[in-house]
Write a structure and sequence with these properties.
This protein is of the alpha+beta class. The chain contains two helices and five strands. The protein has one domain: Double Stranded RNA Binding Domain, CATH 3.30.160.350. A hairpin with a 2-residue loop joins strand 4 and strand 5.
């Protein structure tokens, strides 16, 4: 979602947009979606889970800004896993 919004607003180029790889973790789907900001990328991810046939979504955005897209994607997934471990279904 954020990458599409950024493209619509003209922020970042196709080369700087995160790829949408889905990481499965504890029944959740994590999609890293770092946000281009200044000379780095803000840690962000979408966390999804299907509950009773309905897809629930949580947008995770952190204050952390990391210099490379690859490192920001890794940090986004790690932070999403931490949130899942701490809150589980309560994030929705």
């Amino acid at each position: 979602m954020f990458s599409k919004l950024s493209k619509m607003l003209g922020k970042g180029s196709a080369e700087t947009q995160p790829k949408e790889d889905i990481v499965e973790y504890e029944g959740f789907r994590i999609i890293a979606a770092p946000i281009s900001e200044g000379n780095g990328y803000r840690v962000a991810a979408r966390i999804e889970k299907t509950i009773n046939g309905t897809v629930k979504t949580h947008q995770l955005i952190r204050a952390d800004v990391i210099s490379t897209l690859e490192d920001a994607e890794t940090a986004s997934v790690l932070k999403a896993k931490q949130i899942i471990d701490q809150q589980g279904d309560q994030i929705f």
